[in-house]
Queue: 2 jobs
Job 1
Amino acid sequence: MPAVYMPMSIAGGPGIPSIAMLGPPVAAMSYVVRSATSPTRLLSAVRGAINDVDATLAISQVSTLEEIVGRASAQMAFTMVLITIAAGVALLLGLIGIYGVISYIVSQRAGEIGVRIALGAQPGSVVGLILRQGGIVALAGIVVGFGAALAGSRLVESLLYGVSPRDPAIFALTTLMLLVVALLACWLPARRAARINPVETLRVG
């Protein structure tokens, strides 16, 4: 907020006639001390310095700059914690969802995978097949999400500090992390698919 600093000689206060009040009344003042010493060790020295100026002045509140900044940003910090928790839950749900879908696809294609292995397909090629198919779908979802994030970045600009709402590094890191998570969710059922016994699969088929 805008602030104006005025000398006490023109400010209103106790003992000053109203005709002499050229500035706003002063009911309280802030005394700021900057030091490398611990604030708790300075308290007695600060009280002594104020008493030397006016022994009738009382110190009502003593706090450090870190405490003031912490109180001012407490609501914002709480909001960011909630957003972080929500993002983590969303990422976990996405991981579970991708794993469930790929697992279902693998179970439906167990016969096909068994035939591939019976005809000489290597387990690595089976894993690669599942990863490619799942990765394409995940990449398409990431592209759509990337566009939605760009469109909605302005909505969270007020919650950001020291970073642009469209920071390329943040977007690149997030995209890479989501792709790795998606591939991990695809790799787990793909590894199980590579272990399918073609004899049992063909017998069931």
Job 2
Amino acid sequence: MYDELVKRELDWSHVITFNLDVYLMNVDHPESYQNYMRKNLFEKTNIYPDHSHFPFRPTSAFEDKISGSMGIDLCILGIGTNGHIAFNEPGSSFLSRTRVVNLDEQTIEDNSRFFGSVDDTPKQAITMGLGTIMESKKIVLMANGDHKLNILNVAMNGEVTEDVPASVLQNHDNVKVFYCD
């Protein structure tokens, strides 16, 4: 998605970003989300550095920064194989706000491909909460691959339950879902 956006040579000078989550790790680590976003979007566009925000402690200050920017116009999400969005793991409250979370074993296993082993994969993150996400004016949920098709179907067509955090999106008035195998 970022490659496509960069190719379009858009004017990003008025864009303010709020990333959904970060691992609790050194921000200079090659697999940190800060580093990923810097390499894949920020360095390739004219987004001002002070317009790019990542969740931080105290988490309430991150929430205040979102509110001070008049909220989130567009929230772009992926979905985990266990139904998480951002790092809101199964059991997350639909009312949750930005907070530190322990990552689910399935999430750690799925993300270990980026770190070489499960042991080297971060076990905690700071994530935007489901309540914060649901306040976005528009939401886009994207899923890619056969391994995501079942959970996407459960989340979008099954029971709305905190056991499948992405299912809360059924309660939002402006959601677009995209799937690519």
